[in-house]
């Protein structure tokens, strides 16, 4: 993640250098900013994609919860002080518990990887689509560039901008138009 941050910062520095040259050349300089996360959260297609990932995760979580319940029940039967289990039955249940616990742990890891992979795929796909929508907005509105503001969780690219430069709503509309 740190390498990506350095690349983004370098990109911003290069763009600033280009913009400075254009500004001194007398050409009007139009730069917009947007919040890519807001485009995902406010657009129809973005909401559907986020809901799809959430549903996928919820389905996996239900399976995990059922496995946890089964493990708790099995563990309770092993620890029941009133239980009159023979030593061989007790050992068999303990082995069954260990086996189910290992399977549960593997399944949990697999599900976590699957959900993370699905999230990465969605982010990759929709980042490209959002960039396409931002490009159309930039061309229609005459912007030299539209920068993603970033957010607190990642690196914040734009530290300050005048509200009039924010084209997030325009990008949301274009994104929805392109992704009906």
Notes on the protein architecture:
The protein is mainly alpha-helical and 180 residues long. It has one domain. It is built from five helices and two strands. Helix 2 crosses helix 3. The longest helix is centred in the middle third of the chain and has 55 residues.
What order do the strands of the largest sheet run in, or round the barrel if closed? 1-2
Order of helices and strands: HEHHHEH
Largest sheet: 2 strands, parallel
Summed up, the helix count is 5
Give the terminus-to-terminus CA distance: 32 Å
Overall strand count: 2
Gyration radius, rounded: 26 Å
Mean pLDDT: 85
Structural class: mainly alpha
Q: Approximately what portion of the residues adopt beta-strand conformation? A: under 5%
Report helical residue fraction: over 70%
Overall shape: it is rod-shaped
Domain count: 1
């Amino acid at each position: 993640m740190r390498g990506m941050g350095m690349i983004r910062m370098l990109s911003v520095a290069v763009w600033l250098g280009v913009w400075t040259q254009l500004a001194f050349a007398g050409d009007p300089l139009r730069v917009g900013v947007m919040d890519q996360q807001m485009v995902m959260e406010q657009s129809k297609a973005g909401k559907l994609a986020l809901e799809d990932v959430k549903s996928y995760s919820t389905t996996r979580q239900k399976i995990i919860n059922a496995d946890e319940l089964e493990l708790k029940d099995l563990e309770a039967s092993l620890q029941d002080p009133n239980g009159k289990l023979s030593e061989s039955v007790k050992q068999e249940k303990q082995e069954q518990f260990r086996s189910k616990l290992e399977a549960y742990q593997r399944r949990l890891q697999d599900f976590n990887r699957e959900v993370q992979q699905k999230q990465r795929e969605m982010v990759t796909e929709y980042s490209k689509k959002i960039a396409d929508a931002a490009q159309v907005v930039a061309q229609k509105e005459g912007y030299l560039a539209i920068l993603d503001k970033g957010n607190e969780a990642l690196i914040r690219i734009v530290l300050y901008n005048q509200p009039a430069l924010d084209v997030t709503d325009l990008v949301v509309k274009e994104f929805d138009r392109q992704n009906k």
